[in-house]
Design a protein that fits this description.
This protein is of the alpha/beta class. The protein has helices spanning 25-40, 58-71, 84-94, 129-142, 163-173, 193-200, 239-248, 275-292, 311-318, 330-340, 363-375, 381-384, 404-416, 461-475; strands at 15-18, 47-52, 75-81, 98-101, 110-117, 121-122, 157-159, 182-187, 212-217, 252-256, 263-266, 272-273, 301-305, 322-326, 344-346, 352-354, 360-361, 392-393, 397-400, 421-424, 429-433, 439-445, 451-458. The protein folds into 3 domains: 6-161, Alpha-D-Glucose-1,6-Bisphosphate, subunit A, domain 3 (Alpha-D-Glucose-1,6-Bisphosphate, Chain A, domain 3, 3-Layer(aba) Sandwich), CATH 3.40.120; 164-273, Alpha-D-Glucose-1,6-Bisphosphate, Chain A, domain 3 (3-Layer(aba) Sandwich), CATH 3.40.120; 392-475, TATA-Binding Protein. It is 34% helix and 22% strand. The relative contact order is 0.10. Belongs to the phosphohexose mutase family. Residues 11-126, 165-270, 282-391 form the Alpha-D-phosphohexomutase alpha/beta/alpha domain.
Length: 482
């Protein structure tokens, strides 16, 4: 059987493929060897760290990756079960490159690899992943690890548990000990939050208890996801959490995805809290913390992507800090955060990034900020977040089209006819109506499919629906679908 083509499943930011048809132990082994050669060795790193999620294939794949790396002279620390932000913690704290075996929220038949440089710095197609892929393909096509290109030594493999250290680091960034007692339902979706929440919010990490009553939902680690898909972005995957919050009279609910790097919040009524509201809330807190440490507000930057709510830059600016607008995608967020030395960054997809976490994303730390903000005052969460939810959003709507430029032009023509509309092309096309009523829309083309992604936000629901429906009518003109 011919070797699989890595270009089929090495994506823009990570590796994500079917097991074992695409991602097999042999493939993991050559990717580990290539990672050692392309990322670790040129940076002078003599060691890397590897973690994995709860998928049945993850331990074997992680071990194979380690074998490839040590064959090419790099020492490996295996930290076993961890969340993706737990791997980022290990890479940052140990200052070594890292690899995380996970397919996040994808179905059980998938697995994948997220790679980072020392200090949790991202590795994507434009920052080394393409070179790793190409060298791995070369090794795979030859059927072995080609020790002739190795540096002449074989590395070692050691095992280390960093869960308690990870939990202690997060506890050191957000103090929950003085919060009022809160009841929180946590839906782990049978993913890695079932491993990390008891350590961070409970006592499994060896730390004192917090004034939190955690009601666990699907904490059993199971990569087959027997209860629901571990993707809280889909509303149907929040239904069990919403029902449990109401059943238990909880103050809020938290839902994590499979590798626990994203966190979604629901309030005491079971209503989802928009990720943009969480971004604005955490931004206020991180700016206030930086100011308390002696930094002038004008010298503080907070990053947000361009389809975050308009309320996000407004609230950041109101603190005196500087909002920095970026393209959609974690590589752009991380790049801007590093260049701006930003204290915090947030995305509409519920990825949250922190300077004090090596500019990497951690859903757990964002959740702790929400718990702290709620616990510092007496209002319910629905009232607390109301001031951060100023506008009405459509959410992202995907439309298959035969001619993306033509569909985009039709939307532009419609918007121009409304009068008073400005546009920019930072990421796709953003059209903004600053007058009354206020609205904006963004159209972005998919990089891999003939799709247009539409996001609309407006001052009121009627305006949002009017703009949304007009834009969709222009996009979906008869005869334009593929």
């Amino acid at each position: 059987m011919s070797a699989p083509r890595l270009t089929d499943f090495v994506k823009a930011y990570d590796v994500r493929g079917l097991v074992p048809e695409q991602l097999s132990p042999q493939v993991a082994r050559v990717i580990g060897a290539a990672f050692a050669q392309v990322i670790a060795t040129p940076e002078g790193a003599s060691a890397i760290v590897i973690g994995h999620d709860m998928r049945p294939s993850s331990p074997e794949l992680a071990r194979a990756f380690a074998e490839g790396a040590v064959a090419h002279g790099v020492d490996v620390t295996l930290i076993g079960l961890c969340s993706t932000d737990g791997l980022y913690y290990a890479s940052g704290a140990l200052d070594v490159p890292g690899a995380m075996f996970t397919a996040s929220h994808n179905p059980a038949r998938y697995n994948g690899i997220k790679l980072c440089r020392a200090g949790a710095r991202p590795v994507g197609q434009e920052s080394g992943l393409a070179e790793v892929r190409d060298l791995a393909q070369w090794l795979l096509d030859r059927g072995d690890l080609h020790p002739s290109i190795a540096p002449g030594r074989v590395g070692s493999i050691t095992e280390r548990d960093l869960l308690a250290d990870y939990a202690a680091h997060l506890r050191g960034l957000v103090d929950l000990s003085a919060a009022r007692p809160l009841k929180v339902v946590v839906d782990a979706g049978n993913g890695m939050a079932g491993h990390t929440v008891p350590a961070v919010l409970g006592t499994d990490g060896g730390m004192p208890g917090l004034p939190l009553e955690v009601v666990p939902l699907y904490f059993e680690l199971d990569g087959n996801f027997p209860n629901h898909e571990a993707n809280p972005l889909e509303p149907e995957n929040l239904r069990d959490l919403q029902a449990a919050v109401l059943e238990h009279g909880a103050d809020l609910g938290l839902a994590f995805d499979g590798d626990a790097d994203r966190c979604f919040v629901v309030d005491e009524t079971g209503a989802p809290v928009p990720p943009s509201a969480v971004t604005a809330l955490v931004a206020e807190r991180e700016v206030a913390r930086a100011v308390a440490d002696g930094t002038a507000a004008a010298d503080i930057a907070v990053v947000h992507n361009l389809i975050s709510s308009r309320a996000v830059p407004e609230i950041i600016a109101a603190t005196g800090a500087r909002p920095v607008r970026t393209r959609v995608g974690h590589s752009y967020i991380k790049q801007e955060m590093a260049s701006e030395n930003a204290v915090f960054g947030g995305e509409h997809s519920a990825h949250y990034y922190f300077r004090d976490f090596w500019f990497a994303d951690t859903g757990m730390l964002a959740a702790m900020h929400v718990l702290a903000a709620l616990g510092e005052q007496q209002r319910p969460l629905s009232q607390l977040v109301a001031s951060y939810t100023r506008y009405v959003a459509s959410g992202e709507i995907n439309s298959p089209v035969a001619d993306v430029p033509a569909a985009t032009a039709r939307v532009r023509d419609w918007a121009t006819g409304q009068g008073g509309v400005t546009e920019d092309d930072l990421d796709g096309l953003t059209l903004t109506h600053e007058g009354e009523p206020l609205w904006w829309l963004n159209l972005r083309a998919s990089n891999t499919e003939p799709l247009l992604r539409l996001n609309v936000e407006a001052a009121d629901r009627a305006t949002m629906e009017r703009v949304r429906d007009a834009a969709l009518a222009a996009i979906r003109t008869e005869g334009e679908r593929p």
